[in-house]
Amino acid sequence: MARVAFIGLGHMGGGMAPNLAKAGHEVRAFDLSEEALAHAVERGCKRAKSTDEAVEDADAVVTMLPAGKHVAEVYRSHVFGKAPKSAILIDCSTIDVATAKAVEEEAQGQGYTMVDAPVSGGIAAAEGGTLTFMVGGGEQGFQQAREYLEKMGKAVIHAGEAGSGQAAKICNNMLLGASMAATCEAFVLAQKLGLDLQTFYDISSKASGQSWSMTSYCPVPGVGPETPADRGYEGGFAAALMLKDLKLAMEAAQKAGAYTPMGGEAADLFQRFVDRGGGNKDFSALIKMIDDSWKT
Ligand code: NAD
């Protein structure tokens, strides 16, 4: 049994931390929100009064925080110099590549081993321990982190050096955002051309237009396997989070000098959708904006 400090017990962390406790680890949890902390304690984690207290004597520190500024602040003010140097530091938040690299460089400078390990999979995968982790960092850090990540996920993949996990995550989600936008457009056009949507699904999901957005996450209610579209676009992956990831991808593309017109278009579409109040809806609800006459 290891001592694991878990910081950030929101939608994702609140599901992940109890899976480490179930695996037999002593999980010392902390969140600024009392409600989130109490929920984790009910589910087998131990209450810490602060991040400083949680990381004291820890074998591993796991963070699941909203954005780069929170990650930088938590590590610089509450983990470095407070956690033992032997602790493996694992940031699972989705943040910008530059901050991930900077914080990992500082960790290394102070004698720590740190990895970035963002996830694919939403709240249900966090609860069910079926996340996919993409890990950036050295081989030794990857091996150390894997032992903990395996208890929270179905796949743990080494993406490369520091920041590579974040790079893989935003490239994947840029592809997902653009493919979902294109899938929504295709269904709207198919409808306007008089095609039966189930028939179009049956054809395209077996033809060259097939993608995960169509086959596994169809934005049309009643077509394909059950998806958030069948639940009024509730649950699933919030459009606001898709927009966050697309913005991170655009920022990274600009810094890297990469030409990403489809990603840019997807970012503009999701920005308009969020501005119209769709931020809390599943991201496949974009189809409603693409065709305002959509009857759902
Ligand atoms: P969330 O806002 O629900 O949870 C974040 C938690 O961090 C909150 O409970 C907040 O109180 C806590 N927090 C913030 N600053 C803190 C600090 N200084 N000390 C302690 N706690 C602090 O967010 P979430 O949906 O759980 O997402 C977490 C991360 O995972 C994000 O980076 C997000 O992009 C990523 N992600 C989310 C999903 C999803 O479906 N929700 C999927 C994949 C990845």
TrEMBL record:
Transmembrane segments: none
Keyword Oxidoreductase set for record: yes
One Pfam family from the record: NAD_binding_11
Enzyme class: oxidoreductase
Highest taxon, organism lineage: Bacteria
Domain (6-phosphogluconate dehydrogenase NADP-binding): residue spans on this chain: 3-160
3-hydroxyisobutyrate dehydrogenase-like NAD-binding domain segment(s): 163-289
Involved pathway(s): Amino-acid degradation; L-valine degradation
Similarity annotation: Belongs to the HIBADH-related family.
Name under which the protein is recorded: 3-hydroxyisobutyrate dehydrogenase
Species name: Sphingomonas brevis
